[in-house]
Amino acid sequence: MEKILIIDDEAFIRENVERILNEEGYQVLSAEGGKKALELVSEEEVDLVLLDLNLGTENGIDVLRSLKEIDPDILVIIITGFGSVESAVDSLKMGAFHYMKKPFKADALRVIVKLALQTNSLKREVRAIRRGDLELFEKVPMVGASAIQKEIVRQAKEVARFTAATVLLTGESGTGKELVAKAIHHLSDRRDAPFIEINCASIPVNLLESELFGHEKGAFTDARQRKPGLFEEANKGTLFLDEVGEMEPTMQAKLLRVLEERKIRRVGGTKTIDIDVRLISATNRNLKDAIRKGTFREDLFYRLNVFPLHIAPLRERREDVPVLAKFYLEKYNKTFSRNFQEISKEALQLLESYSWPGNIRELKNVIEKICIMHEGPVLLPSYLPIEINAGDADRNGAHILEPIEEDLDLEQAVERFEKRLIRAALEKSSGNVLQAAQILKIPRGTLRYKMTKLNL
């Protein structure tokens, strides 16, 4: 239920506005002056303020300025008499949402209040977008032909139906855990609310609490204004905690309390705030091992592990490699205005044979780099990084050599192969001969001799 504060020194106006807004289902607070109003905003979660500019001896502009110092994002509608329209315009420059002239009709008040609250909701979504959810669910998690991937998709769709279910995604780095989390969010009834993500390993423990739960003005040295936390920003939506296994024990205890009570308290705050958030966590660590070592709380693990979903590494679902490669090739074709029409049979064999230690993230980066460096129309084996073109592919039994023409003898075939490897090493090192020699594990002089011999 949205909470609205009325600030007006006339009791009749306060009572009349309160009656109208109560009929619309809003919770209404009231104050006759600035002092009480500022106390209420400091203590309560106020969604909207209706502020009269003429508060007896007080100046409404000063009250507006103080409200914005407490909460820069607070929405304020100015109520003004005929003689103070100029002041109302000044208040708009200070960040007020709108102004209404007295006397105003009940229907007009209802419409303006509704628009203001819708704006508040849109602001939360914009903050979510700015935090990185710019792509509204590319169907990358749905891409794949393997039975393993189809099972991941089935389970994601199933858990998406239950909007309160807590999910724990496990799997190696780069397997696409974040994309599966986004899929669950966008397939659920929470899709129109924010999807907020944070990497627990990238933020120091003393800042993580403030990021998650927010802080009040003055809570610590640099807390110059109130700041809502990510749990509040994600309200009605989904909060994705990546690398949750890296969270410090003190934060684990606080997160456990939030999951149990479904309430948060800002740093430096005294009141609790109800939250309605689906929590999805992800880790590439074995949390049961961490429990045995005493670095992860067992009770928190069981709270997070309500619906476990393991994302298999790419090497265990090789049927997905060609599908993903073609997906990213099409994507980066458009991004870089390239003309790739297909991947050659030999290049596909090398891609499928590679072990992909970096999983989907590595495959994506490989295709992106190829589209930066080459035009097309066919993705050839020589475009692939050396570790795919030779080393790792060889260990996995791939066909390193392209089909040998009938009139080539062994020496000519070896020469062709050497040429391909050296070109790949030079490409990987951006033409740096010393680095290319190190990649090939041969002396720089030997490499220069071979480059001259092979006319490279």
UniProtKB/TrEMBL annotation:
GO biological process: phosphorelay signal transduction system; regulation of DNA-templated transcription
Annotated Sigma-54 factor interaction domain residues: 142-372
Chain positions found as 4-aspartylphosphate: D52
UniProt keyword list: ATP-binding, DNA-binding, Nucleotide-binding, Phosphoprotein, Transcription, Transcription regulation
Domain Response regulatory: from-to ranges: 3-117
Keyword Amino-acid biosynthesis annotated: no
InterPro entries listed in its UniProt record: AAA+_ATPase, AAA_lid_NorR, CheY-like_superfamily, Homeodomain-like_sf, HTH_Fis, P-loop_NTPase, Sig_transdc_resp-reg_receiver, Sigma_54_int
Pfam family name, one: AAA_lid_14
GO MF: ATP binding; sequence-specific DNA binding
Residues in coiled coil: none
GTP-binding found in the keyword field: no
Protein name: Two component, sigma-54 specific, transcriptional regulator, Fis family
Native source species: Geotalea uraniireducens (strain Rf4)
